[in-house]
Amino acid sequence: QSVLTQPPSASGTPGQQVTMSCSGSNSNIRNNYVYWYQQFPGTAPKLLIYKNNQRPSGVPDRFSGSKSDTSASLAISGLRSEDEADYYCATWDDSLRGPVFGGGTKLTVL
Amino acid sequence: EEQLVESGGGLVQPGGSLRLTCVASGLSFSRYAVSWVRQAPGKGLEWVAVISDSGTYTDYADSVKGRFTITRDKAKNTVYLQVGSLRAEDTATYYCAKHGLPVTTDTVWLDTWGQGAQVTVSS
Which of A101, B33, B84, B117 could form a disulfide with B17 if both were Cys (CB 3.0 to 4.6 A apart)? Predict the structure, then answer.
């Protein structure tokens, strides 16, 4: 059972916008930055979004992050087949005094 | 190219131990904390341990505390994870990851990841 809750799956068709949620609590998301990682099968995770809504160099602006209260979201616009991957949210938990990850959302591009 | 390369994984019996190594190339992470994150087969990511840039501060997930030890050798640009008293539930791919901010340990900003080292605990 992950501290952060993500829907196990999401899907969309090419060109659509898809939004994935990440639900936390007062001890984690509310007062801390949220990070998003993208992972393709058999490969290492890659930083996709940092500090709630910042994109590292090289990440397309089709990817955007947001945070409100105890939840965060990752939106992907102009969906492409190569976006099919697992997406994980992560943040710091003040009560646990450590990093926590969501269980991940598997994105399927139909 | 900046990269982290892990090694040292393998098949080990329950109760056994291994030392995982994470070497940085094309980058110096002497000013950065480094974390290990693991992923059991078909499961999500789990933070395991962190070591500060100086090596003087370390912290561990409760699930591995007392069994795993993280250290670093700045001269060799290398971080180690000694994993011991291994259990079946420690079976996972272990990734080392560099923190995205200098010095900071209390963050999940992991901007560079290694390719992973597979640890399998089985008799």
Answer: B84
Contact (CB<8Å) B44/A56: no
Give B89's contacts (C-beta < 8 A, 6+ positions apart): B40, B63, B121
Contacts of A102 in chain B (CB under 8 A): 44
Nearest to B108 among A56, A92, A103 (CB): A92
Look at residue A56 in the predicted model and tell me its pLDDT: 96
Say how many C-beta atoms besides its own lie within 10 A of residue A64's C-beta. Answer: 18
Give A5's strand partners: A23
Closest CA to A22 of A60, A53, A77, A68: A68
Contact call for B109 and A103, based on CB within 8 A: no
Query: Is B28's pLDDT higher than 90?
Result: no
B116, two tokens: 């992973």
Q: Residue A81 contacts by C-beta under 8 Å, 6 or more apart in sequence? A: A14, A109
Contact B98, B27 (CB under 8 A): yes
End-to-end CA distance of chain A: 28
Subunit contact B47:A47, Cβ cutoff 8 A: no
Render the burial of A24-48: b for 16+ CB within 10 Å, e for the rest.
Answer: bbebbbeebbbbbbbbeeeebbbbb
